[in-house]
Amino acid sequence: MAEKPPAREVTDGSENGGAAAAAAVPLLRKPRPKRSLARHVVPGAGFALVTAAILFVLLGPGGSKDAAVEEQSSSSMADGVYSGELTPLQGHAAFFDRNKDGIIYPAETYQGFRAIGAGVVLSAVAAVFINGGLGPKTIPENENTSPFKLPIYVKNIHKGKHGSDSGVYDANGRFVPEKFEEIFKKHAHTRSDALTSKELQGLLQANREPKDFKGWLGGFTEWKVLYYLCKDKDGFLHKDIVSAVYDGSLFERLEKERKTKEYTKKK
Q: What domain of life (predicted)?
């Protein structure tokens, strides 16, 4: 009789049998985690917006005005603004009217921020943000200027006031001393003559009006840029600095300091 083939040993998958079985199974690659589209789109979109802002303020209206157009503009608007005494709010804005024709274009706002020491990106974004937010509100009713040029008319700068502010400027752009002192009485806890970053945040929150999102953004941007540019080495924003912002003299001072530093470096 033919011998029966030896019976195969049945394993339970443990020890050597299990290792052999595992080796027989082809290795499967782990699927690569899907990359988030937002990780690529958001930075790219942000870069595109900043680039567009820079190009707009550098190449847009006000960057290189035609001499004849500039002369016509200055003859009408400048006489109505600079022929008399400026309100504190007009004086605050006038620094950015670089050619003193009564109209501030984004290119001039950019130039003004660069003059006080702000970087290229901050200056470009600030120009688009400020002129985009204030400009359309200040255009006179009988003026044919396109709102897409984002001009700010210094004469009507009070019409561009946003909500959720400190109230230091009244509805006509006049300075209100009581409101100014109130800022430091209520919020300057570490020092009576200066604000810390945390105290400044408390001021912004206290000024917020319900659902006034544009006002919140406007106040946040103004105060944070001021703090960034003017805080001292210990992180304090001093009372005299804030006062100089409201009458516009701070900008002139910062420009002179920057020019002095540049002159000193060249020597």
A: Eukaryota
